Amino acid sequence: MKEKVLTRKKTVLRRLGLLLSVMLLASSLSGYNFAPRMAVSEIADQEDMKYYKTFITSFPGDTVLKRNYLVETEEALLFSTVGWTPYGWMAYEWGKIEAWDDAPLHAGMMSKYTEKGNTHWLYGRVAERPDNLWFYYEVKEGLHTSRFGVSVPEEDIFQGENGAWYFITAIEDRHFDRERQGADGEFRLNAVKGSEKLAGVPVWRQSWHGR
Amino acid sequence: MDKKEYSRQVIAAMRHLRADEIAAIRAEIEGHIEDRMEPLLELQGIDEEEAQRRSIAAMGDPAEIGRAFQKHYSYFWLWVDRAIIALIVLVLWGTVWRIPGHLENVKDNLTARYAPMSFLHETTRKQWVDMEVDLRAQVGSDILRVYAVGTKENEATIFWCGYDESIHGQVGQWSVEYEDCHILEILVHASGGGAYAYVDTVEVETGTPSVTAVVKRYGERITLDIPLVWEETP
């Protein structure tokens, strides 16, 4: 019997069906992240962060294939850098701060150390729009004291759908000690409005070393 | 020119054909030629060679036939098809590529679940472990498991691991503190996605019956009482 040759359109439809099946299988095996949010969700699930409230995305480079996410839940704020690879969307590095209390300010820092340089992503949430978000670092070692301070640029502060204010900013090429993790009181953030200090908190810090 | 040569010339006038399409076009053209030959052979008694020559001549210019066929084989759908094939390959490759890492996580998870002592080196086991225990506490979707303890003068060593309750899951970020105890040393024996294993040495007064491990997470305070056994001093 002569085998019927499918038209190209029908072949495409059949192949689309196969693609959908493969995608379904890959998704169910957590094998492939088709969307950047899937990569972030993977981390959020791992951290038991459910019921996502807000996703704020910023694009650190000049490409849409690399982006930053700030995910908020009832319990925590998760900051993650996500990029596209041939293996799907991947969360490269991430940092989490607990934000379950009603504190007016929460701040975290995710530091990435590479051979090319260091980037320290400062992120968090502030209840009220401040005039200034002032990050500073002070560490005493013997007689020597290292100090550094910088304001979060206006454009790096966003308002979420819930009215709260969020910030993601990059501090480039500062050589903060990689081993200093967590909220040891040496990294702090103050929110100031007019001459009044709205809040001041230690910055919870996590660092990654990669390429 | 015979029918094979004619169909070859028709196909030569076309571009970007799949192998199955070439076979189908060849069969169709040769079928048309045979259909034309049939009455010539049966009714007019013309010999096969002549019947084939006349039939081919009636078919017309092969290049023109080829161009007419080409309209039914759109480049657009061909490239869409190739793009889909590329996507399928990419997704399969991406999925397969993650399998070794996933298996490593499953292995760590199973080790934490069923054989946590294998996180430790033989000498560590002999030198520090006094008693194997199996104490577990739920930390969100993860499990904190204390699997062994050891004591020395004014020191207790707690061997614990954390793993996700699903063997495919990854353990979250959390740490253990000890109620009213100062941590002297923390050693990491595994810190993969599937599980982590720590050995904490804490300062306690000799003879203290137990220490309480505490995990603080999202405002919740999870505690686990760990009994301590002390060698009686002569």
Notes on the structure:
The complex is a heterodimer of chains A (211) and B (234). Chain A has 211 residues and is of the alpha+beta class. Chain A has helices spanning 8-28, 36-46, and strands spanning 54-58, 66-72, 76-85, 88-98, 105-113, 118-126, 132-141, 144-151, 157-159, 165-172, 187-193, 196-202, 204-209. In chain A, a hairpin with a 2-residue loop joins strand 11 (187-193) and strand 12 (196-202). Chain A is elongated, with a radius of gyration of 22 Å. The mean pLDDT of chain A is 85. In chain B, the strands form two sheets. Chain B has a five-stranded antiparallel β-sheet with strand order 1-2-3-6-5. Chain B has a three-stranded antiparallel β-sheet with strand order 4-7-8, with no helix packed on it. In chain B, helix 1 (3-12) runs antiparallel to helix 2. The longest helix of chain B has 40 residues, at 75-114.
Amino-to-carboxy terminus distance of chain B: 112 Å
| Number of distinct beta strands of chain A | 13
N- and C-termini, Cα separation of chain A: 59 Å
Question: Largest interface: which pair?
Answer: A-B, 32 and 41 residues
Which consecutive residue ranges of chain B, at least 5 long each, have pLDDT under 50?
Answer: none
Biggest sheet character of chain B? 5 strands, antiparallel
Count of discrete structural domains of chain B: 2
Helix content range of chain B:
40-55%
Mean pLDDT of chain A: 85
Global geometry of chain B: rod-shaped
Which percent range describes the beta-strand content of chain A? over 45%
